[in-house]
Each structure stands twice: as C-alpha cells, then as structure tokens.
Amino acid sequence: MIQKQIFNPPKSISDLFLGSYFNLDDVPKINRHPILKKIIDHINQRINHFFQHQISTLKFLIDQQKLIDSSSTRSSPIVIDIEIDSNQKIQEEQQEKVLTQESELIQLAQYQHPTQEQLNCPYCVCKKSNQTVLKSLALRCAVCKNYFHSSCLRIEKPKKVFVCPECILIGIDPLHELKESILDPVIFQSVEGRANQFTQKFQMKKGIPSEQLIELRSIKIDGQYEDISWPDLGDLQLNGKKIQEFRPLANNSCLKKRKDEKLMLNIELGQVNLLTIRESNGTPEMKAYRINQGIPYMLGIFQVKVYKLSEFIKKVKMDQSCLLGIEQSKKFIQLSILQNQFDEVTMESIKVSLDCVYDLNQIQTPARGNICEHIQCFSLENLVTMMKNVTPRKWKCPICKQMILGLQVDAYQMCILTIIKHLQAECLILQGEVENPELRELLKQQETTLPDSTRSNNNRVIQLEQISQRILKISNQVVAEPKNKYKPPPPLPEPKPIKKIGESFSDAILID
Ligand SMILES: [Zn+2]
Ligand SMILES: [Zn+2]
Ligand SMILES: [Zn+2]
Ligand SMILES: [Zn+2]
Fold first, then answer.
1. Is 503 a residue whose pLDDT tops 50?
2. Separation of CA 463 and ligand 2 centre (Å)
3. What was the ipTM of the complex prediction?
4. Superfamily of 79-83+310-470 according to CATH
5. Which UniProt keywords are listed (predicted)?
C-alpha cells in the first residue's frame, strides 16, 4: 500500500488529502482483523488531526493549484447563476404568484392540521418513560412527521428543521445502514438528576449475513442530541460481563465533548441477552471531571449493513429514493427563490458553484443531505471518502452544517454538469429553466437519455415540504395538548390565515 502511494504521486491537493488516509477496503483480511483495524483507525485519526492543523496551508496550496489550473484549462469556476427577476419582487405580484401556486404548494407542503391525537404526541419520549410533561410546544419531525413535546426533549429554542431522536438514532451513520431492529429505541432514565441504572432483555431472532453487524447506539436527550453519547461515568454489561467502561472528560480537557462511538455487540442467535447500563456516582475526587447524571438516554440495538466506500457511492447513485428528479429539482429552485423574496432578501441572483467545497474541483455526483435546504451541492464522492476515514463519524453538511441522515442526488444539476463539462460556460437559470437556448437544447437532449423516473420521479422530498410550509406560513410547532383528563379538550387550533403575506410570522400557533 505504501509503495503504491510512492509510485503514484498525488496529482492534486485533494489527491494528496484523500490519498493520505489508509484505506483498507481492498485488503479484506486486514479489514476484518479487529486489532489491526483499530490501529489503522487510530493512524487515520492522527492523519485527520494533522490535516486539521494544516488548514491554512492547505487552503493556500489549493488557491495556488486553482491559479495554475485556471491559467491552463479554464478561466473561472463554473457556476449556475440563478437569476431572480427583479419585476417579481413587487409585493402584489408575489401575492398573486402564491395565490396561483397555492394549491400546488399545499400539495407540496403535505401538511395536514394535527389531530388532537397527534397533539398528544403519542410517539414522544414521555410515553416511554416516567417523565411528566410541562406546558410545551409540539414539534413536528421533518423525517417521520410525528409530533414531540419540546419540553420532553429539553429543547428550548427549536431549530429551523426539527428531527426527532429516534430518526437520528436510526439514521446517524448512512454507511451503517439499518436492516433490522433487534431492540426498538427505548428510553432509560431513573430519577431526574440521579444516577441511572437500566436493564433490558433482548434476543436476536434471525441469523445475520456476514457483512452485517449488531450495533448498540445511544443518544443523550439533552436538547442538543445529534451524536452518539454514553453516560459520562459508569459501565455497560452484557450478560453480566463488563464490555465497556465510560470515563468522564476532565474539566480542563480541550475537547468540547467526549467522542463517543456506536458499540458492536457479539451475541448468539436465539439466546436471551441481558444488557445493563450503569451510571456511577462520582467520588469527591472526581470534582475535576465533567459528570452529568440522570439525563435520559435513548438506546437501540440494530442489525446494520456495513458498506464499502465504492459500494456505498454506487448504492446512493442507483437508489431511486435518494434521487431528486429533474422536475422536483426545478420546483426546489423555484421555491427557494420564492422564499427568498418573502424573506425580503434582496438578491439579484443565487450563484451555485459546480465546484465541490471540499477540493474545489468540479463536482462528480452532485448531492446534499436530505434535510439541507440549499441549492448548492457537494461531491458525493468527496463527502463519503471524508466520512469513511474518521471515527466517530459525524455526518454534517459542509455547506449548512446540518446533520446528514440520508443523501440526495440532484438529477438536474447532474445533467447540467454533464453538458457544460467541456464548455467553459456559466449557466444562467431563470424561473428554474436554463436561459441560454443552446444550452437548454443540449440539456433537453441530455434529459431524454435518462430513464423516465429520473425526470418525473415523485419521491417525498423533505425540502419541498419545509419550504412550501414556510411560504404558506405554516409552522411546524403548535401548542401541545395539556395532560389533563378532567377539563374538556380545548378547541383545535385554527390554521393561520394564509393570504395576509405582509404579517410577521409567529413561531407557534396559539390556542388560547
Ligand atoms: Zn490538536
Ligand atoms: Zn412528551
Ligand atoms: Zn422522526
Ligand atoms: Zn446542507
């Protein structure tokens, strides 16, 4: 491996960067050897750490490379320029535009007013534990569409896009795809503020294929949950044997947070297993460590398929459910522009670069996360290569910094990339369509080479729902039902008036 590196010197900064990691996909024997794998993972982490400290140098090198590249091959980075027609900025016209598009928008918003049953938040963590519900907002998860009490999840200020802990636990690592749930997500918490102890029986009922693993995952329900987290101090036992110890971070640690990982379990088919997680009480000497106790955790045991790098990229590219079809992509662009106008962002145009933010080379497969709301894509290949080489993996969009729980390939940008690859052209998009007639013609030809589904596929697209809800001023937060059985239920909240566009947008629909 090392020799290969020496005889094939990197041709670009990104080659240097990506080629520096040890990649064991081609060496299955080593890959399967847990001790060697651990060492290699450690080396990769060190390499990653090294690069983290070289960011300014790398940026300089990349700039230099760009200068050289541009003087030899192309004059400027390729961009898609999405023009916002200035005539459209007039209020009445906006209003009219929404009115004419309203039925379509409502359909895209996929919004149904929550029923009383939904406002009881039957899937919320409080139903799985002994938590009491405070007066609360009900938040709608963008992924599963269920409602959750903001207070039960300790969320004080909801983000623009809310995702529930269960959807995060399940989707936290797309490279380890959930195939079967052995223990459905459960909550563990004893008494608020006191050390938790949790015991759970579980059983694997079906045999597992060789490329699959059994993973134990846990996240802390602390209002900021986005990563795997285990108790600060304590241990984990499987069938009475300690398999993991949790040590807290020192107060003066330079890390913001301990880096926790999913845990692999070795269990026999059919055997009834006993899992115990204990938080320990810190002794007085442990004052210098960060120990928080009694915070609820959500935990699940899953059978996951582990993808190799190339296999995963291929899967995402082939998977119809990961595809944002051409028509949906155009809709997405139009809605983004419409939303910008309502937000009174005065912009002449949105520039979308066809270069990847990771290496500033032309994007190979244009992709974004499934809750990202930007038109800009990154290179699927670059993101996945980056992710494959770090532990613990934290899937974050390089553009909007939101979590990535699933990937989306943009078929429209893929077509544009294909046709302008060899032209040194900017591509102007007006009303979602390419403005230059020659390019538009080429694009049409390109589109006809694609399967029907790529053009007109009708996936559920979270972004289309979110943006159209925002344009229609439908909030994803409503006041939750109080937990009082004796009072008559309050009337259902009225939908916000839609047509008064000038009014300011409140975060919640109030019922009293
Ligand atoms: Zn350092
Ligand atoms: Zn709740
Ligand atoms: Zn959810
Ligand atoms: Zn993003």
1. no
2. 26
3. 0.77
4. Zinc/RING finger domain, C3HC4 (zinc finger) (3.30.40.10)
5. Metal-binding, Zinc, Zinc-finger
pLDDT digits (tens, 9 = 90+) for 190-244: 666 667 788 999 999 888 898 899 999 999 998 888 999 998 989 999 999 999 9
Q: Which of 95-99, 115-119, 302-306, 449-453 has the highest mean pLDDT?
A: 302-306
Measured in Å, residue 387 CA sits from the centre of ligand 3 at 23
Cβ < 5 A residues, ion ligand 3 = 141, 143-144, 164, 167
Q: How far is the CA of 124 from the centre of ligand 3 (A)?
A: 10
Distance 417 CA to ligand 3 centre (A): 34
Average pLDDT of every residue of the chain: 81
Cα–Cα distances in Å, from 300 out to 147, 183, 187, 488? 20, 5, 9, 37
Percent pLDDT > 90 in the chain is: 34
Which tokens go with 337? 């522009």
Ligand 1 centroid–CA 22 distance in Å is 20
Question: CA 65, CA 492: separation in Å to the nearest integer?
Answer: 61
Does the pLDDT of residue 460 top 60, yes or no?
yes
Pairing of strands 79-83, 427-430: parallel
Question: What's the CA-to-centroid distance between 35 and ligand 1, angstroms?
Answer: 25
Residues 6+ away with beta carbon under 8 Å from 14: 358, 359, 361, 382
pLDDT at 40: 82
Cβ count near 159 (within 10 Å): 9
User: 284 alpha carbon to ligand 3 midpoint, in Å?
Assistant: 40
**Which tops the pLDDT comparison, 368 or 455?**
368
Ligand closest to CA 483: 2
pLDDT of residue 468: 92
Distance 128 CA to ligand 3 centre (A): 15
Q: Tell me the C-alpha distance between 37 and 27, whole Å.
A: 11
Report domain extents, the chain: 2-72, 79-83+310-470, 118-308
| Nearest ligand by distance to the CA of 48 | 1
Question: Ligand 2 centroid to 278 CA: how many Å?
Answer: 24
Tokens of 491: 């009337």
User: From ligand 2's centre to the CA of 131, what distance in Å?
Assistant: 8
Cα 187-188-190 angle, rounded to 5 deg: 135
The whole-angstrom separation of Cα 459 and Cα 457 is 6
DSSP 442: H
Is the CATH number of domain 118-308 3.40.50.280?
no
**Ligand 2 center to 121 CA (angstroms):** 6
Among all bound ligands, the one having the nearest atom to the CA of 163 is 3
* Exposure of 97 in the CB half-sphere (CA atoms within 13 A): 19
CA atoms of 495 and 499, how far apart (whole Å) = 12
Nearest ligand to residue 155 Cα: 2
CA of 299 to the centre of ligand 2 (A): 17
Averaged pLDDT for residues 284-302? 85
Q: How far is the CA of 78 from the centre of ligand 4 (A)?
A: 20
For residue 135, which ligand has an atom nearest its CA?
A: 2
